[in-house]
Amino acid sequence: MKFRTFALTLLMLTAPAAPAVPTTPGQVQPVAPGTRAETALPQLHLTPPIPQVAHIEYASNGHLTVAHALLLLQPDEQARARTLAAETARRALQALPTLSEVDVSVYHRSTYAGPGGPLPLFTASVPRARLQDFARYATNAGPYERAWTNPRPDAPGGSVWPARPRPPEALATRTRALAAYGANRFAARLLGGDRDGLIYWGNTGQPLAALTFDDAPHPLYAPLVLDALRRAGVRATFFCIGRNAEAYPYFVRDMVAQGHEVANHTYHHVRLPDLPAAQVREELLRTNAVLQGITGRPVRYFRPPGGRFTPQVLDAARDAGLVTAFWTNDPADFANHGDTVLLGRLDRLRGDGIALLHDNAPAALRILPEFLQRMNARRLRLVSLGELAGTFRPVVARK
C-alpha cells in the first residue's frame, strides 16, 4: 500500500503546473482544479436591514449552528465598526434562535476583495452566551478576548509583488530538478516519518493516522469543525493561512486550547513555484511569526498550497525550520463529487496515513462526523501530524 501511495504522490508532484498567479498573488485564493460550485449556504436576512451588512450566511454540523456576517463600511463609518458588529450579532441571534454563535468580519467597502485581499478592519466571534460581554466591549465598557482590531487598517492587502510568469521550458526544468532532488529524499518516501525536512506518511506501525486541515481558520467553518472534533475526541493539525490566522487569532487559540496542532500554509495562499526565492521565504517566515505570536509556540510543519513546490521551496522551508508535509489520502473535498464518494475515498485511509481535508470546504464539514465514526469503528485512531511523527504533545487547557 505504501509503495502504491508513493507512486501516486510522485505522479502528483510532477503533474503540470497551475497557471501563473494573478498580478497580485493572494487577492483571490486559488481553488483546486476541477472545482464545481457548492450549494449556496442559507442566508439570514434582518428586518429592517442594516445597510452595512452585505450578507449573513450560516451552517451547522448537526449540533452547533454558526453564522458569519460580512459588513462593508464606507470610510466615514470606520469608527462605528465595533458598534455595528455588536448590533449585527444581537439581531442575528434574535432572528434565528437556533444560532449558537455569530462571527463578524468588517471590511472597507472600497477595498474588499474576499478572503485573499486586504485584511478586515475588525473581526469578532460572539457565542450567544457572550453577547452581553461583547456589547459592553463595543462601547469600551469591558474587555473581550474574542475580537481583533486591525492595527494597520489602511495597509494594502494581498501580495505586493508582481507574478513571475513561468517560461515554456519551466515544466521540464522543474521535473528534472524534482527527480534529482527526489533521489536524495528517497528514504522519506520509502521509509516514512520525518526525514530530512520531508514527511509523506508515518512509520509507527501502529493503527494511527494523521488528520489535517488546510486553509484554516475560516470564520464560519472553524468553530463547526472544532466542535465536531471535540465531540469525537480527535485532535488534528490545522495548516493555517497566515493572513487568516492574523485576522481570526481567537480561532487559532481555540485550536491550541483543544489540543490541536497549528502549522504553516503560507501567508497569502499563493502557489510558491511562481515566486522568487526571497518572496517564498517571506511567505513562510511571516506566517511563522504570526502563528508563534498567537500561540507562543514554534511552528514545525509546512504544507505548500496545492502541493506545488520546487527544490527552492523545500530549501526555503528547511531554512525556516519547517518540515514540508504531504499526504496519502486526498478525497478532493473541494471538487464536490458527493458525500458518498468522499467517504469512500477516506475509507482507504490506513495506519500511518495522512488525510487531507479543508477547513473551509462545506463538503468536508458535512462528511466529517461520519468519517470520524467510521475510523473509530475500524479502531484507526486519528491524531495530529506531530503526534504521528512523535514530535508534538498536545496541551489541553483545563476547563
Automatic annotation (TrEMBL):
UniProt entry tagged with the keyword Signal: yes
Keywords: Hydrolase, Metal-binding, Signal
Biological process terms in GO annotation: carbohydrate metabolic process
GO CC aspect terms: membrane
Signal peptide (residue range): 1-20
Residue stretches making up the NodB homology domain: 207-383
Pfam families: Polysacc_deac_1
Naturally occurring in which organism (per UniProt): Deinococcus maricopensis (strain DSM 21211 / LMG 22137 / NRRL B-23946 / LB-34)
Gene3D superfamilies, A to Z: Glycoside hydrolase/deacetylase (3.20.20.370)
Superkingdom as given in the UniProt entry: Bacteria
PANTHER family named in the record: CHITIN DEACETYLASE 1-RELATED, GLYCOSYL TRANSFERASE-RELATED
PROSITE patterns found in the cross-reference section: NODB
Protein name in the entry: Polysaccharide deacetylase
GO molecular function: hydrolase activity, acting on carbon-nitrogen (but not peptide) bonds; metal ion binding
